[in-house]
Each structure stands twice: as C-alpha cells, then as structure tokens.
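Observation: inputs received (chain + inosinic acid).
Thought: call the complex predictor directly.
Action: predict_structure
Action Input:
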Amino acid sequence: MSDSLIIGKDKFVTLYTEEQIKKRVKELAHQISEDYKSSIPIFIGVLNGSFLFMSDLIRYINIDCEIDFFKLSSYGDEKISSGNVKLLKELNCEVNDRDIIIVEDIVDTGLSLKYIEQLFVDKKPKSMKVVSLLVKPGSLKYEVKIDYIGFIIPDKFVIGYGLDFAQKYRNLGRIYVLNEKGE
Ligand code: IMP
Ligand code: MG
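Observation:
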C-alpha cells in the first residue's frame, strides 16, 4: 500500500500501517476481554466509520459477546464537523440492564459522543463504556469519557480504515493524515 496519497490538491501521508493498527486493536481486545470476563457485553458500533475497527476488534475478543450498530449523520462532504448530529438508523437490540461498549472510529469534537451518551440515558444499560480507535484531544469541545483509546492523534483530518472523506477512502487498510504543509 502506498506511503502517501494525492487527493485533489491535498496530500495525505501514512499515519498508521496495517501492522500497527492490527497490533493496537489486538491489545485493546485483550484488555476489554479481561475487563468483561464475567459479563456478556454488547458491542455497539457507530456507523459508518467504525465498521472495520468493529469487525477487527470483535475477532480478537475471547469472551462471549453480542454486537449491534446504529448510524449517526456524518460530516457530509466537509473536513470539519457540521455541528449537528442526527440519528439515521436506530439500534435494534435491548440494552436495558446490559453492559454495553460503544465502538467509535474517532472522537474529534466529542459532539457525537455527547449525543450518544444522551441517547442511552433512557435505555438504562447496566453500564456503558466507550472504545475509540482514534482521539484528537486538541479538537475536543465537549466533556466526554473515553474508556479505551487506540491512538491519540494530532488535530488533523484522517482517512482510511473506515474513515471517509466525502464517503470515499473507507476501504484503505492504512490510516492516512492530511499533510497541511503540502510537503
Ligand atoms: P465529533 O462528533 O466531532 O467527535 O466527530 C465524530 C465523527 O466525525 C467521527 O465518528 C467520524 O465519523 C467523523 N470524523 C471526525 N474526525 C474525522 C477525520 O479526521 N476524518 C474522518 N472522519 C472524521
Ligand atoms: Mg463515526
């Protein structure tokens, strides 16, 4: 897979390779399996961005678990958050009195996660934790709790491994970051 990508006027460079992602996802899965060994948690993926992370993570989980997904609105075709979140597809499972783990691709401003926290208050899970593959602490605008973090990254736009730009590039195996200096 190439080290860099040119998309229009933008240049993206490799931030994490497939091997680095796999290693970290395995470590997260082992930690979560250990923490939930006396429970049957439900992993709840936030579509679309988390689909690859979710499928890889779940493969390394070595305890009984269930999965479900719901879908939130995305950035549209922009590289910055619209400031609005909408629920585009509801959850189908019953989470009342269950241990749930929200699976996110990335926490940027924290707006989506804040929305998710509210969404689950009425559903009364027994516990709710959050695993996010990526977190941009420099962009956080809302106070949110993230229990498991894959990588802490700079406040720059990233694509690949589920993350899109205008719905494209989710299929890339690596995570690429926008090189704003155009070097
Ligand atoms: P937040 O609500 O600002 O925290 O953004 C959360 C959502 O925006 C993530 O779940 C992603 O789907 C999307 N997002 C945030 N940053 C990026 C990025 O750098 N690349 C692609 N999508 C992003
Ligand atoms: Mg997302």
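Thought: report the result.
Final Answer: The radius of gyration is 16 Å. The first strand starts at residue 4 and ends at 7.
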